[in-house]
Amino acid sequence: MSRELNQNIFVAGHRGMVGSAIVRRLQALGYRSVLCAGRDELDLLDQRAVRAYFAEHRIDQVYLAAAKVGGIHANNTFPADFIYDNLMIQSNVIQAAHASDVQRLLFLGSSCIYPKHAIQPMKEDALLTGVLEPTNEPYAIAKIAGIKLCESYNRQYGRDYRSVMPTNLYGPHDNYHPQNSHVIPALLRRFHEAVQADQAEVVIWGSGNPMREFLHVDDMAAASVHVMQLDGATYQANTQPMLSHINVGTGKDCTIRELAETIAKVTGFKGQLSFDASKPDGSPRKLMDVSRLRALGWQATIDLEDGLGDAYRWFVEHRLEARD
């Protein structure tokens, strides 16, 4: 472990919610050389620039957390951006890692890779067994391509490129855009503004019936580092050559209505909750089967209400930094 602490570890997407959490986790564990490059220094959409960066730095491991992400509205509005940007980012980074002889890489995907009506909880082998949720299909296809890129480099070149598929994430450094954010930051902002304006009602998109699983980003970072640190024999014993990704989640879910009620409690909102059923619900349920990850020795530790409280405190303290 002491030798590994001196390795050069590149975290792609370090300014995002997941990337910044991975950086915090690595630094807390004592890693001495965590490499980060902002968009002003390295444009991950530029293949030549990415290859030059890898050639310049002697990188030992890569955490590929960079991605274009957003909620239902953003996915519906910008499908071309979501598929193109994500395909280019992951292709450029994975190919550059291989070209620079980086043996180990961790690709971060998304639970949206699974079919809309996948059997719940969703096992890893549900991949490519059915139709995807239409609202985020372009993003999901890009993430599936990332998994297959890793598998293909492993098969053809003997690389050790791993993939983890997180459930819905939330926490510090999330995107709080009023339209383009995911459900938790969108609701935290909406309830916060309702409290500030002394509003009597908050309207939530959809029926409130869909069930979702949520994981605090610090748990996601801990799981990512845990999976990356596993020796090859242990990792391979719990995966298959054509099924190399691992689900990351809590194994528990709640309805959107229950989520909204918890956020109302965390933010101190005392008014009425209304649900606009004319807005899309998305998949009826998305719960991850995390038995494979638990067999590898890791499980989530942050309770949803505690995690929401942490996320809300960050939002209030960094209100001017939260993306609008």
Terminus-to-terminus distance: 41 Å
**In percent terms, what proportion of residues is strand?**
15-25%
Overall mean confidence score, pLDDT: 93
Radius of gyration: 19 Å
- Percent of residues in helices comes to 40-55%
Question: Looking at the chains present, what oligomeric state does this protein adopt?
Answer: single chain
CATH class type of the domain at 4-170 and 213-251 and 286-302: Alpha Beta
Description of the molecule:
- By secondary structure, the chain is α/β, with parallel strands linked by helices.
- It has a domain at 4-170 and 213-251 and 286-302: Rossmann fold (3-Layer(aba) Sandwich), CATH 3.40.50.720.
- It is built from 11 helices and 13 strands.
- The protein has a 6-stranded parallel beta sheet with strand order 2-1-3-4-5-10, sandwiched between helices.
- Helix 1 (17-28) links the parallel strand 1 (8-12) and strand 2.
- Helix 2 runs parallel beside helix 4, helix 6 packs across helix 9 and helix 9 packs across helix 11.
- The N and C termini lie far apart (41 Å).
- The mean pLDDT is 93.
- It catalyses: GDP-beta-L-fucose + NADP(+) = GDP-4-dehydro-alpha-D-rhamnose + NADPH + H(+).
- Catalyzes the two-step NADP-dependent conversion of GDP-4-dehydro-6-deoxy-D-mannose to GDP-fucose, involving an epimerase and a reductase reaction.
- GO terms for molecular function: GDP-L-fucose synthase activity; isomerase activity; NADP+ binding.
